[in-house]
Amino acid sequence: MAKGDIQTAPGTGLVGKLTPDQKVLLKQMWAEILHIADGNTGALETVPVAAAPAAGADKAKKGGWFGGKGAETTAVAVPATKVNVADIGIDVKELRTALWNNILGDHPDSLLLRFLRARKWNVTNGVTMILKAFKWRLEDDIEEVKSKSEDELDAKYRGFRLQMEMGKSFVHGTDKLGRPVVYINVRMHKPSEQDPKALEKFTIYVMEVGRLMIQPPVETACLVFDMTGFSLANMDYNFVKFLVQCFEAYYPESLGVLVIHKAPFVFWGVWKIIEGWLDPVVASKIKFTRNDKELTEVIDANHLPNKYDGGKDKFTYKYTPVVSGENDRFKDVETKTRLLDEWKGILWKFEAVTKEWIQVGGKNASGRSEDEIEAERLSLANELRVAYFKVDPYIRARNLYHRGEQPVLQADGTSVWTYSN
Fold first, then answer.
1. Confidence at residue 390, expressed as pLDDT on a 0 to 100 scale
2. CA nearest 236: which of 170, 282, 192?
3. For the chain: N or C, fewer Cβ within 10 A?
4. Mind giving me the DSSP string for 226-294?
5. pLDDT in tens, 154-206
6. pLDDT at 69 over 50
């Protein structure tokens, strides 16, 4: 097996579902990211990680990989990947901020694994890809979409709020695999009605809001491009390119299925152009539905709005405007500072334990086993999620899905969908 170049076996590659080889590569990626985040721009010459058990090892010595009562293995120095931070152009002083602002309430491993899977477990490519994504997030100020209200964003980007008011795109319910469903009504799009940057910011808004609705163990979303009434006047090639780039480079492994629904004849000429831009992995997730009945193969009828034939959910999208005072907690600097400090304290512990986990082999210097260290990492990841959602309303503006009599997004980070059947 070439270093850093293994394929994901069925049912593995996600948090808690790694093969021994995949775990080694995840450790290597963590080692390099933390090395850079600690202010090092030079190459990490070796990464001391615990090696996977050799094939055919004594099966009588069970008890988990490295830990507990199993056969002990020794930490080895794995040759480092060659990531040129200078070529990427990211400021290493901002890397740790970009990392944790991107993790939010997820298990920290989840983010790194998305980029590893996207690059077929090649660590060099995975680290390079994630650093480029962090650079984009910093340069395009992705935090602005999270920290400003829709009214503030609309004042800066002409037509931002219009996207929501007209219902061009919204999230509602889950599909048969528990993935949140993003509906895009293509016929409502007219390229000249908003500044291109406003559309980009709205797209990022939907991406970031959608991430909050992806509930573990689900890791991806379902997109429905409703092509009903589509004409060439609705076509926006620049936006399509931006959306493709988002899924391929900035939010990899976030797309579960992309449904192109009721595409008219005129669309097929457009599709021949778009298809050439797609990465094969993204292209493989596209499904065409010719009628509403086929849509119920992806989304349960009880979750599907009844505007679609066969849908039973009496749901009609309506935009709920910004509520006066909904972000007043931003002004409570004392509480915000305290909660931020609590969250940061846990993430520093998580990083410290992760460094210990990277190097453990059987037993480490403190006598702790792999299993014991992994149990602490999991506990800290759970604490991080709780701490993040405590501070969230003090640093993140409330959005459409926090509002109304039956809000979708709950204070603890869970999502509750209401269906009217």
1. 98
2. 192
3. N
4. E-TT--GGG--HHHHHHHHHIIIIISTT-EEEEEEES--TTHHHHHHHHHTTS-HHHHTTEEEESSHHH
5. 999 999 999 999 999 999 999 999 999 999 999 999 998 889 999 999 999 99
6. no
Residue 180, amino acid? P
CATH number of 150-295: 3.40.525.10
Spatial CA neighbour of 330 closest among 205, 105, 148: 148
**Phi/psi at 109 (nearest 5 deg)?**
-65, -30
Residue 6's pLDDT is what? 46
Please tell me the predicted confidence (pLDDT) of residue 52: 53
Which pLDDT does position 4 carry in this prediction? 43
Helix (H) or strand (E) holding 185: strand 180-185
Return the structure tokens found at 360.
Answer: 């453990």
- Maximum alpha-carbon separation in the chain: 68
Binned at pLDDT 50, 70 and 90, residue 364 comes out as low
DSSP 322: P
Alpha-carbon dihedral angle through residues 242, 211, 135, 147, given to the nearest 10 degrees: 100
* Band (40; pLDDT cuts 50, 70, 90): confident
Contact status, residue 261 vs residue 218, Cβ threshold 8 Å? no
Residue 409, classified by CB atoms within 10 Å of its CB into exposed (0-12), middle (13-18) or buried (19+), is: buried
Q: Which residue's structure tokens are 């709205």?
A: 202
**Strand, helix or coil at 162?**
helix
Domain ranges across the chain? 23-139, 150-295, 328-402
